[in-house]
Design a protein that fits this description.
Layout (H helix, E strand, L loop, with lengths): L7 H18 L4 H8 L3 H8 L8 H11 L3 H9 L25
InterPro entries: Cro/C1-type_HTH, Lambda_DNA-bd_dom_sf
GO molecular function: DNA binding
Organism: Actinopolymorpha rutila
């Protein structure tokens, strides 16, 4: 059976899911959260960046548990562009990191 390509909406939902998990992870390291969820750091990285836009259900459940976010809340955040961390005025943005030795 050949898997059909994802629609733009499905890819966007995957990006929102990843951003929501990243936001919920806060200052915790990827290593810590991945270990608590029983997934590899690379899997977590790919989900957070949207490179795995449709992760397995039990992976999502494990990650939600690892970051202390109810699965229903995570699903709601991923489903609605208005409730995603990108749309939230309280979302903190990341500053670019200057190369070593560059005055800041």
């Amino acid at each position: 059976m050949v898997r059909q390509p994802l629609s733009p909406e499905e890819r966007e939902r995957g990006l929102r899911l990843g951003a929501s998990l990243r936001h919920a992870r806060g200052s915790r390291s990827m290593v810590d959260v991945a270990a608590r969820a029983g997934v590899s750091v690379e899997t977590l990285r790919k989900i957070e960046t949207g490179r795995i836009p449709t992760p397995a259900f039990f992976t999502v459940v494990a990650l939600a548990d690892a970051v202390g976010l109810p699965v229903a809340d995570l699903c709601e955040l991923a489903a609605s562009p208005e409730t995603s961390p990108e749309a939230s005025p309280t979302t903190t943005s990341r500053r670019p990191v200057a190369p070593a030795g560059t005055p800041t």
